């Protein structure tokens, strides 16, 4: 006799499944969220196919060609544009501008004489119309519907027959006859599966807006990210108008591209050259500053690092950072003390970036070290200098990726000097000494370690052999 199916248990928070009941979810670590569900039947018979299988060489690729969305920065991130039949998931924090971006994409697509359907479940139709009037997004081929029922959304798709469908957001749409409330694990999976099925059968590009949790991850089941073809993250600082669109998953293009936007009162506009947003225009040389070159995807960006070092009256001096990794700053401070003789154990250290830029790449270590040394001794580095390189615990400088692209971008923006790590040495660990060359009219100085870089820029007054504190300097 056949054994009865074993009961299955599923987490109501993340959708994790297990064969036995547990008090704590093994995926999201939530307590009391695992509940019993009906076990699926293992007997599946053959069913009619929707389309006969053909040799892969006979499959047409013209139906899946890229179509421009009308927003160049979005096309850059997607790898060329919107693909018919693709499902795109756009996630971001509340108020970052997801709806404004997608309304602009829908309006630009409609201007290309492609019928577009915008379904909103979070706002009324009149609220979206007001935003469209403000941003200039009103067009005859842009259809708007305010629905929270999956069946009604499918009916709108049948009536309008759009080439682009925007659903804002997937957590607000409910599927009738499915357990749970809208936004739950089961509801989100059913709604997303139904919309993706329509996208594949009708060759419609579907863009789904997803909410995020307090830790920045996409809310709902993890399977949602597996179902869609593209996962995009829209991020930015609330105190800044600058926004960045990152690709986390992309089946049709690279996942290391970044799009830059400017969110203002008149809508959202693409920023093709965002470097000027992260560099301060100083009237003369200023101590405690240095410009770093970071890579956002495959795009080099220049960002200014600023540092302030003051004597501290506290037993434990403060270490405050903004836009920089605190652990990397602590490591750079330790290297400066051990290998450069800059003692800051009795000083408050403040380090930040300009314009809300976030520098998490190790290539910005050298710029941070130069800014800290310059602020410590109140010596301004030479004007028009960029510094890039990863600092090791032994004080050496390590090469960074895409160095030619970084140098070319710095030279294009008018910088006259760049300090970079030396090329790898010969077998045996011998690193070449400092060298000097010229690239595109910019002087490039290669140094082996951070102490040599500080001496080259004239912002150091101490060496390891003659240790001197900041007060003595």
Automatic annotation (TrEMBL):
<keyword id="KW-0378">Hydrolase</keyword>
<protein>
    <recommendedName>
        <fullName>DNA repair protein RadA</fullName>
    </recommendedName>
</protein>
<dbReference type="GO" id="GO:0000725">
    <property type="term" value="P:recombinational repair"/>
</dbReference>
<dbReference type="GO" id="GO:0005524">
    <property type="term" value="F:ATP binding"/>
</dbReference>
<dbReference type="GO" id="GO:0005829">
    <property type="term" value="C:cytosol"/>
</dbReference>
<dbReference type="InterPro" id="IPR004504">
    <property type="entry name" value="DNA_repair_RadA"/>
</dbReference>
<dbReference type="InterPro" id="IPR020568">
    <property type="entry name" value="Ribosomal_Su5_D2-typ_SF"/>
</dbReference>
<keyword id="KW-0547">Nucleotide-binding</keyword>
<keyword id="KW-0227">DNA damage</keyword>
<keyword id="KW-0067">ATP-binding</keyword>
<dbReference type="Pfam" id="PF18073">
    <property type="entry name" value="Zn_ribbon_LapB"/>
</dbReference>
<dbReference type="GO" id="GO:0003684">
    <property type="term" value="F:damaged DNA binding"/>
</dbReference>
<keyword id="KW-0234">DNA repair</keyword>
<dbReference type="InterPro" id="IPR020588">
    <property type="entry name" value="RecA_ATP-bd"/>
</dbReference>
<dbReference type="InterPro" id="IPR003593">
    <property type="entry name" value="AAA+_ATPase"/>
</dbReference>
<comment type="function">
    <text>DNA-dependent ATPase involved in processing of recombination intermediates, plays a role in repairing DNA breaks. Stimulates the branch migration of RecA-mediated strand transfer reactions, allowing the 3' invading strand to extend heteroduplex DNA faster. Binds ssDNA in the presence of ADP but not other nucleotides, has ATPase activity that is stimulated by ssDNA and various branched DNA structures, but inhibited by SSB. Does not have RecA's homology-searching function.</text>
</comment>
<dbReference type="InterPro" id="IPR027417">
    <property type="entry name" value="P-loop_NTPase"/>
</dbReference>
<dbReference type="InterPro" id="IPR041166">
    <property type="entry name" value="Rubredoxin_2"/>
</dbReference>
<feature type="binding site">
    <location>
        <begin position="92"/>
        <end position="99"/>
    </location>
    <ligand>
        <name>ATP</name>
    </ligand>
</feature>
<feature type="domain" description="RecA family profile 1">
    <location>
        <begin position="63"/>
        <end position="212"/>
    </location>
</feature>
<dbReference type="InterPro" id="IPR014721">
    <property type="entry name" value="Ribsml_uS5_D2-typ_fold_subgr"/>
</dbReference>
<dbReference type="GO" id="GO:0016787">
    <property type="term" value="F:hydrolase activity"/>
</dbReference>
<comment type="function">
    <text>Plays a role in repairing double-strand DNA breaks, probably involving stabilizing or processing branched DNA or blocked replication forks.</text>
</comment>
<keyword id="KW-0479">Metal-binding</keyword>
<dbReference type="Pfam" id="PF13481">
    <property type="entry name" value="AAA_25"/>
</dbReference>
<comment type="similarity">
    <text>Belongs to the RecA family. RadA subfamily.</text>
</comment>
<keyword id="KW-0346">Stress response</keyword>
<dbReference type="Pfam" id="PF13541">
    <property type="entry name" value="ChlI"/>
</dbReference>
<keyword id="KW-0862">Zinc</keyword>
<feature type="short sequence motif" description="RadA KNRFG motif">
    <location>
        <begin position="249"/>
        <end position="253"/>
    </location>
</feature>
<dbReference type="GO" id="GO:0140664">
    <property type="term" value="F:ATP-dependent DNA damage sensor activity"/>
</dbReference>
<keyword id="KW-0863">Zinc-finger</keyword>
<dbReference type="GO" id="GO:0008270">
    <property type="term" value="F:zinc ion binding"/>
</dbReference>
<keyword id="KW-0238">DNA-binding</keyword>
<feature type="region of interest" description="Lon-protease-like">
    <location>
        <begin position="348"/>
        <end position="473"/>
    </location>
</feature>
